[in-house]
Amino acid sequence: MKILAIETSCDDTCVALIEAVGKKQVKLNILSNVVSSQNEIHQKWGGIYPLLAKREHQRNLPLVLRKALKQGDKQGLSRIDAIAVTVGPGLEPCLWTGVNFAKGLAHNWNLPIIPINHIEAHIAANLVSVNYKSQIAQPRLAVEARQTNYKNLFPAICLVVSGGHTQLILMRDFGKYKILGETRDDAAGECFDKTARILGLGYPGGPAIAATAAKFSIHNFQFSIKLPRPMIYQKNYDFSFSGLKTAVLYKAQSTKRKALSEKFIQAMCQEIQQAIIDVLLYKTLRAAKDYNVQTIILGGGVIANKELQKQFKKKIKKEIPNSKLCIPAPNMRADNAVMIGITGYFLWLKKEIKIWKNIKAKANLRI
Ligand code: KG4
Ligand code: ZN
Fold first, then answer.
1. Domain assignment present for 139
2. Domain CATH for 47
3. Is any ligand 1 atom within 6 A of the Cβ of residue 164?
4. Is residue 335 in contact with ligand 1, taking CB distance under 6 Å?
5. How much is the pTM?
6. How far apart are the first and last CA of the chain?
7. Do 317 and 189 belong to one domain?
8. What pLDDT digit, counting tens, does each position of 188-246 carry?
């Protein structure tokens, strides 16, 4: 079946067309995957303004749709079987833009709609692996199921870390989740974004901090900066990152008079990144051991962090060598509509489809 997928929960306008076949052995083709990033627009403000993002989605959606259809649907619209759209969680005005757009298409083309949870989609992005032989630039990108039977992945612990969310989720099967813990204030990505802003680095802050941290060398050791690892040893699976942000603000302010030298900023970025990785890694590992899981599944934009991936791989290999680590393919870490389409297919198999009139955006949707 062919699914047209739409994602507008945050600041990326995404449309993809995927084709999926099979039940136990799911084979997927990505026919098109178009992402229109609003980074440049939000860069000046150092963060996302929901109404500005909504206006951009409204402007971009028809263009992104046209491009996705042109790239991926050589056989014509009649062959699309369903529309999958993110209904939450996310920024309410942005979600409604995508939802209303999808409803309009479903109404006009007489297609069923599959409502998608954005967090579940970040997890589902792991249930497939990309076949790189057919290169990302090609319109037709083959994707195969990571395992012949994905069920041997469970139980799993999923760490979903993005600009809006930080959650540890116990997954017993596709559709069976229990949130073990989550952030009590800022999300990990938000902490990257806000601390980058304090240091005068660009938006989004995660890649900017990672790139600056990579320049840190032992010669900068004159700046021995120690930041807190909030809640790391508390006996729960919750997180808190606002204290880390405040600590960075105080350190930056107290150093201001001497001017924030390049080396100081490099040392600071290295420590911010390490503090966030330490907390995420420690809590994820503890949950994995407590629940004796088969797999650790990572999802969300922060997973793009190379140092985080490296440290997760190393620690899991050392401490729980029998567990698998799943990291989504590079083009499926940040927000995209392919993951929405994949989730749509799994839900289609479970017959969780709706008619367009019943679809609503829910900013605080829980998994
Ligand atoms: O999942 P995502 O694309 O959008 C949301 O649903 O929020 O995640 C975006 C977040 C941003 O906060 C961004 O700073 C962060 O992911 N991010 C990173 C990296 N690349 C993106 N954080 C750390 N290191 C990175 N390399
Ligand atoms: Zn996301």
1. no
2. 3.30.420.40
3. yes
4. yes
5. 0.92
6. 25
7. yes
8. 999 999 999 999 998 899 999 999 999 988 766 666 789 999 999 999 999 999 999 99
